[in-house]
Design a protein that fits this description.
Length: 337
Amino acid sequence: MLKHRNLILWSLLGCMFVALVGYSYSVSTQTKPGSLGELLSDRTWLNNWPRWLDMPLQKWTNDVIAWLVQTYGWIFDAVNAFLLGILVSLLNALTYLPWPVVILLVVALTYVLSGRKWGTTLLVGACLFFIGFLSPRFWDKAMQTTGVMLIAILLCIVIGMPVAIAMSRSNRLRNAILPILDLMQTIPSFCYLIPGIMLFGLGAVPAIIATFIYAVPPLIRLTDLGIRLVDPEIIEAAESFGASPRQKLFIVQIPLALPNIMQGINQCTMMALALVVIASMIGTRGLGDEVLLGLQQLNVGRALEAGIAIVLLAIVLDRITQAYGDTLQKRKVKAEK
């Protein structure tokens, strides 16, 4: 049965390939052979790729984007207004709080999440201080970058976690989604900015969408892996006590998979931070502005300062998420003993 199913699948894929090549040839506007005899007699097309054998993917993509803008533009406007409203509120909270208060709050959060590790706590506090100490203008820009990142990471968690849970429960769905995740990570992030600009305009919102698409795959992968690695005996024990599928998920599987989930959030955070310079090219305010201005002015010192500030912010975010993941891992090991 499986052999026949694979044969049918490959036959359908072969037919689709032939139909795609035939359609691309028929709609090509380039000069092309009029008959099979002409094609066989003139073999110059074997040396260089023939212009008449060209899949019109560019036209299809532009037509789809234009159709989306014309038909569902109001939905994209609503999403843009929603995300922009959240971003403005978050930035107001981050930028209007006195900087010592922000540092103290982050230090206290690090101390709690790291399991009372003074070394990690002091490192985070020092890195935050030196962001502003490098240049006073970096402090507000760091808060702007953090705001964009936090919203993108929140989207990754809200959308990525349910996808990962669904993948962990269905091998067929997992096999279908994994190639999509590979594609999302392989396509250069610049490519996500163009449709984002067309659908949402310039500013922070297309940067948030591009960051989400680029950063969500590791969270989905590691969450799916963490849930799948839960000991089957523990799940059987939960079932023997009459736990429902929802109870098994939220009381057993997700708590035990939290170390993997935190690793995914950590990777998601680092990948999101990697886009700050790219985001500055479409009007997103933040530390990427300074790198871009240093590049445009050939100002090595300015670019170096901004680069160090980005590294310091990366250390802060990495230490907080990594420390919390380590704390959860130690609790998991202690519980298993």
